[in-house]
Amino acid sequence: MREWTRDERYRVLEGPEDIRGLYDSIRKSAWRQLYHVQPVTGLSSDPNGFALHKGIWHLCYQWCPWGAVHGLKYWYHVTSTDLIHWRNAGIGLAPDCFYDNRGTHSGSAISDGEELIFFYTGNHRDEDWTRTPYTCAAVLGEDNRPRKLDKPLFGPRDDYSEHQRDPKVVYNEAKKRYYIFIGAQTLDKRGCVQVYTSKEPLSGWQFAGQLKVPGYEAFGGMWECPYIVNISGRDVLIFSPQYTKLPGRGESTNHNVYLVGRMDYDTLTFTPEGPYRHLDYGFDFYAAQGAASIGETDKAILIAWIGLPDNHYPTEEEDWEGSLSLPRELRIVDGRLVQTPIPGLKALRGAEIAPDGTLPAACELEFTAPEGDFELALFTHADGSGGLRLRYDAAARRCTVDKTGMDKRFNQQVGEVLDMPLDAPLEKLRIFIDRSSVEIFANDGEATFTTHLYPMEGEFHTTLTGGSLRVWPMERAVTDEFVL
């Protein structure tokens, strides 16, 4: 693995020619995807600035242009009219001022009808590399480029650690106020959420207090990407706890969870109705963000990073890494979230293929499960060996996903076998495969499982011990053109 110096990781992008050669190289990769947002070069991580504004969906991803490494972060901007077909729009935010001299870190966006406003963490570092995080804002211009405010909305609080980031902005209609939720860490290294409020989105922000979540006062060492949304009258708190291991999650210390409950904006208390649940049970799902300004009350739209902060992936050898998940519709059913793919994805299906034991590199599968136990193996060799194994235990209502049989193994120290528990018997799976990722939706979204996977030549076969399988190749939906 290449060793990156600090100077290499934090180099400033001067112009297109700095990375055009890198783009020309990585676009030839067999693992470049057809219908997922992925980095134009280098590394993509957290989704940012996800909102609907004047009929256009805006989405950014945290981006380091130089390679598969966490260094100087930009926002790269993509747009869509349907959440399915995405076009590259170029750099959204660049680290080009005092307050973000070492990175434009994660944040969100909100539309007030006339303006689309982006909120982000400006990562400032002094000469001795001391970090100061600022909460900053930018407004989308007529040229589709965000314009930064001259000064931050506010700076950090010294009664918390330096980890104060990822502003998520919501507007509360009942209070007629805006709220910013900031992922934070207390001085004694406990994860938490700071809350700021204002009557105006670009001025007047005041610290309101720390979000109280009874029972979760010592849950993880940092809460990244906090997000509160009301769906059908129920509040949902989504966040990514770090620096902690959770039962059944192997050696990973980065997670994405949610709580259903009630948010009291007077007391800044989120009262859970039950225990936390994992937003996704897969190996690679993190930093999920909901879209703002969608005009719906019975659902939310969510997208996440397919990856984890401390993991490493085979495409590092090609100087790129990462992608974003498919957008998902979130609804509440029986007190828990149900996640389903955007309905229009079916329009990407090509002509159905008769299942013959082979898999296209980019496809959608619908699997109808038999009664009782079964095994479905994807990406096996021609003789049925190896592959990604999905084993279902009917008595336990548990699907176990095992990637130890793949030729290209990675992150073995974190874990290669995970369970996806279900409340109801497994009846069907909807599976999206896109060259280097797999997203599994069980029982119409009762549970989901997302993972990177890097099949090699000779691994595009499938076997099953029961049930039936339908297969459709998927068409390209995301442009992979070079735009800065």
Give an overview of the whole structure.
- The chain has 484 residues and is mainly β.
- The chain has a domain of 128 residues: Sandwich (Jelly Rolls).
- The protein contains two helices and 32 strands.
- Strands 4-3-2-1-20 form a five-stranded mixed β-sheet, with no helix packed on it. Strands 13, 14, 15, 16 and 17 form a five-stranded antiparallel β-sheet that branches. The chain has a five-stranded antiparallel β-sheet with strand order 30-29-28-23-32, with no helix packed on it.
- A hairpin with a 2-residue loop joins strand 13 and strand 14.
- The longest helix is centred in the first third of the chain and has 7 residues.
- The radius of gyration is 22 Å and the shape is globular.
- It starts with 5 loop residues before the first helix and ends in an 11-residue tail after the last strand.
Write the layout of secondary structure elements.
Elements: H1 6-9, H2 20-26, E1 42-53, E2 56-64, E3 74-80, E4 86-93, E5 104-111, E6 116-125, E7 131-140, E8 146-148, E9 160-172, E10 177-186, E11 191-198, E12 206-210, E13 222-231, E14 234-242, E15 257-264, E16 269-272, E17 277-278, E18 286-290, E19 300-305, E20 320-321, E21 328-333, E22 336-341, E23 362-368, E24 374-380, E25 387-393, E26 398-405, E27 417-421, E28 428-434, E29 437-442, E30 447-452, E31 461-464, E32 468-473
Parallel strand pairs: 1-20
Antiparallel strand pairs: 1-2, 2-3, 3-4, 5-6, 6-7, 7-8, 9-10, 10-11, 11-12, 13-14, 14-15, 15-16, 15-17, 18-19, 19-21, 21-22, 23-28, 23-32, 24-25, 24-31, 25-26, 26-27, 28-29, 29-30
